[in-house]
């Protein structure tokens, strides 16, 4: 806890690096392992990018009040990411009878003009309830929930603990 109180900027920098590492791992799973992200995975990536950018911004800010405001935004974005990951975990544990998560990539390109297909590509194309990968018995969505929750907890501790600079 001394790191949080004495070095909040280092804690925020570590959080930003953790976000970068998680995003790189997601890219590895997509581009090397061939796992297609679903729309909820894409939303979680955007949330992780925002948390990472906010943490990096907070690490660069010298003012306690400005850093506190940025950290509060990071708490909110982490909470949003945790909510989406929890919802995806729920869908994986209790898959719906009718899948309505998104279309596949080729179906979008064939069915829609490029102007409409490009935004759809960024929504993802995989099935949100499908479990493609596990580690220690947890899915990507489960791990995502844990990381977002941990990041939110870290940010809340930074807000709660009085910092000295």
Percent range for helical residues?
Answer: over 70%
**Between the first and last Cα atoms, what is the distance in angstroms?**
15 Å
Order of adjacent strands in the largest pleated sheet: 1-2
Low-confidence stretches: 102-106
Tell me what portion of residues adopts beta-strand conformation: under 5%
Helix count equals: 7
Order of helices and strands: HHHHHHEEH
Q: Supply Rg.
A: 18 Å
How many DSSP E strands?
A: 2
Question: What kind of assembly state do the chains in view correspond to?
Answer: single chain
| Main sheet properties | 2 strands, antiparallel
Helix and strand content put the structural class at mainly alpha
Shape designation = elongated
Description:
It is elongated and about 50 Å long. β1 and β2 form a beta hairpin. The two termini are 15 Å apart. It is 71% helix and 2% strand. About 3% of the residues have low confidence. A two-stranded antiparallel sheet has the order 1-2. The chain is built from seven helices and two strands.
């Amino acid at each position: 806890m001394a790191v949080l109180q004495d070095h909040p900027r280092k804690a925020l920098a570590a959080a930003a690096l953790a976000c970068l590492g998680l995003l790189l791992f997601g890219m590895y799973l997509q581009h090397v392992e061939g796992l297609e992200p679903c729309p909820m995975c894409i939303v979680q990536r955007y949330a992780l990018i925002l948390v990472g950018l906010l943490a990096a911004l907070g690490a660069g800010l010298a003012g306690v009040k400005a850093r506190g405001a940025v950290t509060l935004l990071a708490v909110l974005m982490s909470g949003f990411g945790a909510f989406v990951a929890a919802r995806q975990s729920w869908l994986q544990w209790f898959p719906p009878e009718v899948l309505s998560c998104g279309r596949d990539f080729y179906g979008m390109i064939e069915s829609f003009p490029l102007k409409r297909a490009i935004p759809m590509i960024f929504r993802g194309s995989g099935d949100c309830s499908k479990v493609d990968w596990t580690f220690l018995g947890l899915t990507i969505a489960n791990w995502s929930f844990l990381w977002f929750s941990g990041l939110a907890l870290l940010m809340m501790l930074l807000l709660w603990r009085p910092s000295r600079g």
